[in-house]
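Section 5.1 Outputs to date
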Amino acid sequence: MKNLSCLAGLMVFVMLAAVSNSFAQDNSLSKKEKKDGWVLLFDGTSLTNWRTFKNIPGNWAAKDGMLCSEKPINKENPDILSNDVYENFELQVDWKLSPQGNSGILYHVTEDYDATFYSGPEYQLIDDEGFPEKIQDWQKTGANYAMNPPMVKAYNAPGTWNHTLIIVNHGHVEHWLNGKKVVEYEMWSDEWKKNKESGKWKDAPGYGASKSGHIAFQASHSGVDGTGVCFRNIKIKKLN
C-alpha cells in the first residue's frame, strides 16, 4: 500500500508539474520569436497594453492567464483596444468562446465613430452551430464580417481553444484559423469596394478607410455563462 501511495503521489506531482509548465509557456515569447520581431501584447496578469474603447468604463479582466470579457448577459461592455496602433503586421491570438457566444477581433480601428466596427474590419468569432439566431455565411467564424465568408470550416467547439493568425500587409489581408486559411482579400480593391457598397457597410464611410489603427477585441454579445470570450497568447509582429 505504501508503494501504491508513493506512486499515486508521484503521478499527481508529474501532472501538476505538466500543468504548471503549460501555464508558464502561455503568454510568453521564445528566443526565436523575440529575434524575429514578435512583441507580446498580454502578459497574462495585467491589462498594461490595453484600454477600453474611448475609455468607457468596462468589465474586462486578466484572470488565470487569460484576458476575458466578463460582461453579464444583457449588459453593455465596451470593446478593448491595444494602446498602440499598427499598419502592417502579423497578429497571433488564442481564443475561447462560450456556447452561443458572438465576438470578434478587429484591426485598423479608430475612435472616430460610435463603435469599433464602423472603422475596423472584423475577424468574426461566433458559435456557428449553437448561436440562437440564424446566421449567414459572412457571419461565420473566421469571416471578414459582412464582407468575405470563410472558405473552409476550421473552428473548434465552444469552450475549447482556437488559434487565429491575421496578416495585414499593404492592403493584402489573410485570416487563418487553426492552421487553415479561411479568408484572403485585398483592401481598397475594386472587389472590396463592390462588397462594401452593396452590403452592410454601404452607409459607413469610415469602414476600412484607415490604413492603420488599434487592435480591438469585441465583448461577446451573448454567451450562456455570461463570460462570453477569453483571449491569451496575444502577440504581434510589425511588417515593413
